[in-house]
Amino acid sequence: MNVVVVESPAKAKTINKYLGPGYKVLASFGHVRDLPAKDGSVLPDQDFEMLWEVDGASQKRIKDIADAMKSSDGLILATDPDREGEAISWHVLDLLNKKRVINGKPVKRVVFNAITKKAVLDAMADPRDIDVPLVDAYLARRALDYLVGFNLSPVLWRKLPGARSAGRVQSVALRLVCDRESEIERFISEEYWNLSAILKTPRGDEFEARLVSADGKRLQPRAIGNGEEAGRLKALLEGASYVVDTVEAKPVKRNPSPPFTTSTLQQAASSKLGFSASRTMQVAQKLYEGVDIGGETVGLITYMRTDGVQMAPEAIDAARHAIANQFGERYLPEKARFYSTKAKNAQEAHEAIRPTDFDRVPDRIRKFLDDDQLKLYDLVWKRGIASQMASAEIERTTVEILADNAGKKAGLRAVGSVIRFDGFIAAYTDQKEDGEQSDDSEEGGRLPEINARENLAKQKINSTQHFTEPPPRYSEASLIKKMEELGIGRPSTYAATLATLRDRDYVTIDKRKLLPQAKGRLVTAFLESFFTKYVEYDFTADLEEKLDRISAGELNWKDVLRDFWRDFFAQIEDTKELRVTNVLDALNETLAPLVFPKREDGSDPRICQVCGTGNLSLKLGKYGAFVGCSNYPECNYTRQLSSEGGAEAEANGLNEPKALGTDPVTGEELTLRSGRFGPYIQRGDGKDAKRASLPKGWKPEDIDYEKAMALISLPRDIGKHPESGKMISSGIGRYGPFLLHDGSYANLESVEDVFTVGLNRAVTVLAEKQSKAGGGARGGTPAALKDLGAHPDGGGSITVRDGKYGPYVNWGKVNATLPKGTDPQAITVEEALALIAAKAGKSGGTTKKAPAKAKAAAAGAKATKTTAKPKAAAKKPAAKTTAKKKSAE
């Protein structure tokens, strides 16, 4: 019996059926080891030694494989056919060797590009050893990504509060998005005009021709730059006579595109299906691993992480056979088509993405697939079959027309196309039963019969004004295409890189376009200013090329790491002397359009409009960057830094405080303002001024004096509780609207309830809350009113709870009562830490020793140390049903 290791349980089940009783197929669930997410997992000073960690779930899976090996004849590593798959096999083998269960038994590596019985059995008949250079390339990539992330990210945290992380590929992809936004901001729109004529042939057929020359000169695109010039040319055409100069019909062949790569599949799925890159890969993974079609589980497409565009010879033969059967011999070219990629640094080590069986037409297996699977399979099948079909034959007709107005001449042109033979286009249209298509279907506009030297009648002259538009923002598909063109990233990293940018709030997606957020633009500007080399496109692409050369056995992986680390470490060290003022000065200049948007009145956007003398500048706070006045604290003007810069605040009238009236009790002025956390109401001036943020759903333009007074006057006294005689009040906290009575809280359904709830309803809500708490928490721990996050020393979260003797802060076994009168919803992390430290008898506001439970949990993860070869990190899919890889950045 042989043990076979694959990555996912779905593959294991299918492959077990193919191999039969002589094999036991087990899943690794993706990677089995990872670099711990902490400093020191890669040690440059120890020749880039890498420390690996096996989590609990992976330990169990490795134990299962090791137990099976004890009674086996050999080990077959059958993970995916790429760099990540090779690395997983290497990790598994290394761990099994450490457990001493191999004991000289044969170990072989097999790869198959499709999960079909033939592909799997063919692979088993042709095993090989683990590809060491491929593993070396994986180790180098993993170490590079770790070293960049764990050394550059702390620099961001220290110098740019609010930034989340930086990565080798992630930061360059973000720069692409931010650079495009800067192009849009710098873009100056220009006016231009297009002129065309609606003309009629002697036979009464109308068509349109556009102006292409005038005054003896050919007009370049957008050459007519103003209405005056357009008017002059329109007058010329209005009074002109028209005659056909030449008619040229030229046959043109249109060739099919190659089968899909990872990149082109993600692009097509985005533009045609509206799929995100991650959604595309999830669906493709399922189609690759196998779908039950009538009692048989079979992979429907080949491996979906590839930059190759060629199909295997047997697949080409199968496609040509299917074309002849389904479309007819006319659609079959004389020779098979062969493709080569144009993408920079493409390896083409694997086949393109194609159907495993071209006879599985999408309509025939529709009932076995869900909607997403059918849509994506349909794309793959059509692109694959079309890639081997005959060229489309198109007749493109160009008509040149002369206009003459009393000796003033102009030239017009009309172009039309007719598809004489659809060729590969037939794969994308509804097929007739005999496979034939109409011989004169149109591609674009079709022209009527037009003959040279015949006169044409003018029907109408069209003159339309246009303005040039800025370059479009990237979509996920166009960004992936650009990254591929530049040689940045690899097929397995595109989706993960885009997901990271979204997760970090560096970009958002609006109408399928990637919008850089202020946080993302700040990070990019910082890196461009102080780590220029490491966000350059060419540098990143050259590094990718070196990794590919490692894969080919041409470079030593540690030599590449040494060269990189020497310069990168020096750059990191230089930033230690960098002052925050230097950072702000650089960001103010780089992000001027974002930080200082132009004002409608033409005034200097860098001068504070509130005090009139202070200079506006970026400021760095605990939660990120904002714009503030240099005259602080005398002038406390601030503005949130958003992707729209100051435009949003100006649109709401908030660049300058908006006066709403005077508080009749205090005599202080109420104003509506915009701050770093959004619009708010302020009563009075100075540090002691009372402020209240607008509740969710309240728009600045809807705020009047009555609403402002109601908001600033919170908490609102409702009345005394009939039993306790203590006041019930309502207010708005961090977690929404609430009632407060004798230290106990109860949630209200809406913000409006805060201002309208009466005494009877308030008593009922409080009683309902008391009833629920009493029934479920008797003898236990009260529910948390507020979660402040993890304690910096470990040991779990810090929470605010409501106890028998009032609200308190809890951390582990430490309970610290809140001072009398403290609002539990307003307690900060710093205040909670001080209370916990005081309760625990410590000083300095923090505890120095984590509870024993935290230590035990930390020791629970088993770390292993390797010196021969560093290893890459992997996701730990403890609760997943399919294997997932951790894509390197």
From TrEMBL:
Spell out the Pfam families in the cross-references.
Answer: Topoisom_bac, Toprim, Toprim_C_rpt, Zn_ribbon_Top1
Q: Which residue positions hold the site described Interaction with DNA? A: H31, R141, R142, D145, W157, R305, R504
Q: Enumerate the SMART domains for this protein.
A: TOP1Ac (SM00437), TOP1Bc (SM00436), TOPRIM (SM00493)
InterPro entries assigned to the protein according to its UniProt record, in alphabetical order: Topo_IA (IPR000380), Topo_IA_2 (IPR003601), Topo_IA_AS (IPR023406), Topo_IA_cen (IPR013497), Topo_IA_cen_sub1 (IPR013824), Topo_IA_cen_sub2 (IPR013825), Topo_IA_cen_sub3 (IPR013826), Topo_IA_core_domain (IPR023405)
State the function annotated in the UniProt record. Releases the supercoiling and torsional tension of DNA, which is introduced during the DNA replication and transcription, by transiently cleaving and rejoining one strand of the DNA duplex. Introduces a single-strand break via transesterification at a target site in duplex DNA. The scissile phosphodiester is attacked by the catalytic tyrosine of the enzyme, resulting in the formation of a DNA-(5'-phosphotyrosyl)-enzyme intermediate and the expulsion of a 3'-OH DNA strand. The free DNA strand then undergoes passage around the unbroken strand, thus removing DNA supercoils.
Q: Where does the Toprim domain lie?
A: 1-117
- Molecular-function GO terms, alphabetical: DNA binding; DNA topoisomerase type I (single strand cut, ATP-independent) activity; zinc ion binding
Return the Basic residues bias intervals: 872-889
What NCBIfam families does the database record attribute to this sequence?
A: topA_bact
Q: Which reaction does it catalyse?
A: ATP-independent breakage of single-stranded DNA, followed by passage and rejoining
From the Swiss-Prot or TrEMBL record, give the protein name.
DNA topoisomerase 1
Lineage at the top is: Bacteria, Pseudomonadati, Pseudomonadota, Alphaproteobacteria, Hyphomicrobiales
- Keywords for the protein's UniProt record, in alphabetical order: DNA-binding, Isomerase, Magnesium, Metal-binding, Topoisomerase, Zinc, Zinc-finger
Annotated spans, Disordered: 772-796, 840-889
Q: Record's PROSITE patterns?
A: TOPO_IA_1, TOPO_IA_2, TOPRIM
Q: Which family does it belong to?
A: Belongs to the type IA topoisomerase family.
Question: What Gene3D superfamilies has UniProt attached to this entry?
Answer: 3.40.50.140, Bacterial Topoisomerase I, domain 1, Topoisomerase I, domain 2, Topoisomerase I, domain 3, Topoisomerase I, domain 4
User: Low complexity compositional bias: what residue ranges?
Assistant: 840-871
Name the gene behind this protein.
topA
* Species this chain originates from: Rhizobium tropici
